Give the backbone structure.
Amino acid sequence: MKKKLIALMMMLAMVFCLAACGGGSSEPAEPEEAEPAEEAEETAPAAAPEDIVVDEEAGTVTITATVNGTFFDQSTMHCVVFKDGGAGDAAMLAAYCDSQDFYDAMIQAGGTPWNTTDARLEDGEFTDGQKVSVSFTWEGQDTPVALADAVKTDDGKLEIDQRFSGNQIGNKEAGSGCIACLNSCWAGITSNAAYPFGAIDSGNPHAYLDDSVMPADGTDVQVTFTLE
């Protein structure tokens, strides 16, 4: 009798254990897959106005400058000048970049400067050097406007034969910040061999920014110099 009681108790214990195990026999729920995090869009940082963009393959240097509307009806030989240079207020376009940095960029783009000394032109003398074409674009104007179309004289268009004059030493000594002059010059990094030094200052000819072509005073424009 005692053996039967023990056996019965053992059977009851087994049943209880099986019931307990059975209660936890359901398969655990699969964990929910976390949705992949959205990859942050990679965007190139916007260029600052003072940035100089060099394309060595194309042989171009692009800078940003602001239109000075004073020279829609006032003559000047200064086309593009560093805004903080000595002639910054006397230019048709005030550039954000320093003229010495611009010189370095022209070398990086593959340019060969003409004057690498401290030599200075006298009135009536002409610059020389590697030819350079200059053009402008701005917001809403994606088609480049050539320098020859952007400036005018009392009688029509200004002749343009822009050169990489070099003049690194003269430019630094003058402190003018000249990047592009509209007649030959000993201080401009680029200057116009179509007219001798002193021509525009003496009114032969007068040179103006053409307000029928170029945007309003205070507009930022991109100026591209292409080595030929």
Notes: The chain has one domain: 53-227. Residues 53-227 form one domain. Confidence is low (pLDDT under 50) at residues 1-9, 11-28.
